[in-house]
From TrEMBL:
Cellular location(s): Cell membrane
Top-rank taxon, per record: Bacteria
Main subcellular localisation: membrane
Name of this chain's protein: Uncharacterized protein
Source organism of this protein record: Mogibacterium pumilum
Membrane topology type: Multi-pass membrane protein
Membrane-spanning segments: 12-34, 54-73, 94-114, 126-146, 167-186, 192-217, 245-268, 301-319, 339-360, 372-390, 402-421, 427-448, 469-490, 496-518
Statement: the UniProt record of this protein carries the keyword Protease: no
One GO CC annotation: plasma membrane
A Pfam entry, by short name: Polysacc_synt
InterPro entries per UniProt: PG_synth_SpoVB, Poly_Biosynth_Transport, Polysacc_synth
Entry keywords, A to Z: Cell membrane, Membrane, Transmembrane, Transmembrane helix
């Protein structure tokens, strides 16, 4: 297969990752805009009603949206790769039936069981919020099926656009209803239910958009069906294959939330066993959950986008036995992840204190306590990116159970390390942070070994890991130095932090080219890639190896 063909496939994968990254950031911003005013309006009491609905919603959401969209994406991409558009569409139709059944079940449980669930949670006022979120449980699985079908064709725009519309509608409907109920009746249960209905409104809006996209693509699908190769596949065989792929991925997706639940139980008890009071233990644990986790989660927008885009690209190459294309996609995927995750890790370590004080100006003591915890957790950003990237590769080649087993091993090691380190008073909550990093690191190594054994892909260690790390260290030094300088001149943490971050971005982009991280094919994939390549060639900044 030609080099041009591989470049086209690589460009498609990178473009898909870029689309999902941009829309993911927009969705994150909308999400933050939703929670901050809502907290201010309805307070802790109102949020407790809102909080009754979300564990149930999250549980069904994991079942519907964790494994099945990946399975749909993989199976569709495999069939599209060999020109079997008829069975690719059949996969989508079978998945819709499964998703509809999950949605109906979730809706019935949440809507008709609202009073029982709320009473059992010792918060009867949460019943209205449960009913308000029930429509989202009906529509979200169907939305996930549409997204999986689009991703399988390496069309990421429908997924990205629907995510933005979903969050936008969630903000306007949720905050609008919460404000209306709060000012018309001052009833916190109604206000919380109004806010919760935002998720339903968002999901319905996303479904409408995806239906429009699907209908608009009818003619193109008809043309594909006419030229499609075809082999008989029964509904039963497709159903079995979907579940075979989806179940391990769903279990794997449930492991990390489960880890957090057990972590809370374990860390609180270990802290109290070493002399911390219950109140102090809650405060220390809050450093991770309240202060650090949102910051650590932000870079994952990019790596999740890479992972989602990688599955259909890997599946497509694998089913065609295009080993050159497979190796190229793996190398491009991991390198893209490293070029994104290394600067995020170094930046958070270098500017941990300024960033925390910028985001939480009203809580200087807690922000100061959270600095070392954030720095330790930041070490896990690269490991988590490697873990996710190679999980996608293993899912793409039809080995979805391996990442689950590897993650389980990592989590067991995490609990052992956490138990030991949290019990040492000088480590306290930082021991839990170190345990998280260890879990991600061990799982990343195991995933890499499995990927290498099954695909035979050899990574260029210097280009993939060492050069992005060097560029990031240069950036980190510039960020720290510029922060200190601007802070001394202006005395403003906010201004100094923002200036340091802008300088860091500029320095990192320059350092990536100076260290020759990128080869010609990788530069071509970038927006305006040909112009950039001509410039880097002139300046001798292109990696020609």
């Amino acid at each position: 297969m030609s080099k041009v063909h591989h470049s086209e496939h690589g460009a498609k994968f990178v473009k898909g990752a870029a689309i999902l990254s941009i829309t993911g950031i927009i969705a994150k911003v909308f999400g933050a805009f939703f929670r901050i005013p809502l907290n201010n309006w309805i307070g802790a009491a109102g949020m407790s009603y809102y909080g009754v609905a979300y564990p149930i919603y999250s549980f069904f959401l994991i079942i519907a949206t964790a494994g099945l969209p990946v399975a749909i994406s993989k199976m569709v991409s495999e069939r599209v790769a060999i020109g079997d558009y008829i069975n690719a569409h059949r996969v989508y139709k079978v998945s819709l039936r499964i998703m509809f059944a999950i949605g109906v079940f979730g809706f019935i449980v949440c809507y008709f069981g609202a009073d029982i669930i709320a009473a059992h949670s010792k918060n009867p006022g949460g019943a209205a919020s449960l009913r308000a979120i029930a429509p989202a449980l009906l529509t979200a699985p169907i939305v996930a099926s549409f997204r999986g079908y689009s991703q399988g064709q390496q069309q990421m725009m429908p997924t990205g656009a629907s995510e933005v519309i979903e969050q936008l509608m969630r903000v306007f409907a949720g905050l609008g209803l919460a404000y209306m109920f709060l000012h018309s009746s001052a009833d916190l249960t109604k206000a919380a239910a109004g806010a919760t209905f935002g998720a339903s409104a968002g999901s319905i809006a996303a479904l409408i958009l995806l239906l429009i996209v699907y209908i608009a693509g009818s003619n193109a699908r008809r043309l594909h069906f006419q030229k499609s190769v075809h082999k008989d596949e029964s509904t039963k065989s497709i159903f079995k294959e979907l579940l075979k792929i989806a179940v391990p991925i769903t279990i794997g997706s449930a492991i990390l939330p489960f880890m957090m639940i057990v972590d809370l139980w374990l860390v609180m008890r270990r802290l109290q066993a070493t002399g911390w009071s219950h109140h102090q233990s809650k405060q220390l644990y809050g450093l991770i959950s309240g202060f650090c986790d949102p910051l650590i989660g932000f870079p994952q927008v990019f790596t999740i986008a890479v992972a989602v885009s990688l599955v259909p690209a890997i599946s497509s190459a694998f089913v065609r036995t295009d080993m050159v294309g497979l190796h190229k996609n793996i190398q491009t995927g991991i390198k893209t992840s490293m070029i994104i995750s290394f600067p995020c890790m170094v930046g958070l370590i270098a500017l941990a204190r300024p960033i925390l004080f910028l985001l939480y100006p009203g809580q200087p003591e807690d922000s100061a306590l959270a600095v070392p915890t954030l720095q330790v957790l930041s070490l896990g950003i690269v490991c988590l990116s490697i873990l996710r990237t190679f999980s996608s590769v293993l899912q793409g080649i039809g080995k979805p159970a391996i990442p689950v087993i590897n993650l389980s091993i990592g989590v067991i090691c995490k609990f052992i390390i956490t138990y030991i380190l949290v019990g040492i008073p000088s480590f306290n909550i930082n021991g839990a942070a170190a345990g998280n990093v260890a879990a991600y690191g061990i799982t990343a190594i195991l995933n890499y070994r499995a990927m290498h054994k099954l695909t035979g892909t050899n990574l260029d260690i210097i280009s993939t890991f060492v050069k992005p790390a060097i560029a990031s260290l240069i950036m980190g030094g510039a960020a720290h130095g510029s922060y200190v300088l601007v802070f001394r001149l202006l005395g403003s943490n906010s201004l100094a932090t923002l200036v340091a971050m802008m300088i860091a971005v500029f320095v990192y982009v320059v350092a990536v080219f100076v260290t020759k991280c990128l080869g010609p094919e990788e530069i071509i994939m970038m927006p305006k890639g040909e112009k950039i390549l001509r410039l880097t060639d002139k300046l001798h900044l292109t990696n020609k190896q």
